[in-house]
Amino acid sequence: MFERLSRQARAAVVSASVTALDEGSETIEGLHLLRALITVGPTTPAALADLGADVNAVVAQAEARTKHASTRAGLTDEDVEAIRTLGVDVDALLAKIAADLGPEALRPRPSGRAGRLRLTGGGKPRFSMTARKSLELALRHTMRLNEAHLSDAHLLVGLIRADEATRSLLAEQGVTETELLEWLRRDGGQGGGAVPAYA
Amino acid sequence: MEETRQLAAAASSSDPATGLRGVAALRRLLDHLEDVHVDHARGLGWSWQEIADALGVSRQAVNKKHGRR
């Protein structure tokens, strides 16, 4: 998979994994990838800005949300909501753990089974479930367009399709999948030659 | 708060996607809880065998999952 990534997309994945490590996150989340895509640029920040999003706010929000998760057993807001639908009050449960065992108990274990950001065979870092799904959809998108490499733009499409945290954050900024695809079709050509037919 | 809870309850009523997502997230939470309590027990000097007995699994299973750290 990694060898299919364009240089920009590869840089984004590497940047996201560094950010995840820095935050002590057990996984590379979709929001880490979104921030990385904005940092690596230029397609993602251009697309978001053109579609009316405040790019700095997107970065700040994404950072706040992943950092929040890293002090809450690695659970995202969506995870907490999902568990709540089963009738379990996660916040009460975590508050009890923190009270009994100290707040450090809520940090994902840095070097344990679930807590390790592994660089396993082939140098692949460990992605969250939705981040992995995003990469898969991005790859499928790339193949449907008959392109050789999974570009940063394709990765963004994968994220907005498969990562709920990315989709809701961008929706708050008024950016939807439809608009993004439209923008990419219109302005997202890598320049020189045919503009890829985004569909 | 009560309102959130009602919304959440409503969301769970019939949608399999919601239920399954909840189960997946809860499993991650459980894994974390297990990590925390195994670490705690080890910190208090519990043996792998004692931890395994308490968890109701084999010593090998616990060691494979949590050992060599």
Describe the structure.
The complex is a heterodimer of chains A (199) and B (69). With 199 residues, chain A is mostly helical. Chain A has one domain: Double Clp-N motif (Orthogonal Bundle), CATH 1.10.1780.10. Helices cover 60% and strands 0% of the residues of chain A. Chain A has helices at 7-23, 30-40, 43-50, 55-70, 77-84, 90-101, 129-144, 152-162, 164-172, 177-187. In chain A, helix 1 (7-23) packs across helix 2, helix 2 (30-40) packs antiparallel against helix 4 (55-70) and helix 8 packs across helix 9. The longest helix of chain A has 17 residues, at 7-23. The radius of gyration of chain A is 18 Å and the shape is elongated. Chain B has 69 residues and is an all-alpha fold. Helices cover 80% and strands 0% of the residues of chain B. Chain B contains four helices and no strands. Chain B has helices at residues 2-12, 16-43, 48-55, 59-66. In chain B, helix 3 (48-55) crosses helix 4 (59-66). Chain B is elongated, with a radius of gyration of 17 Å. The termini of chain B are far apart. The A-B interface holds A 73-75, 78-88, 90, 93, 97, 101, 105, 108-109, 111-115, 129 and B 4-5, 8-9, 11-12, 18-19, 21-26, 28-29, 31-33, 35-36, 39-40, 65-66, 69.
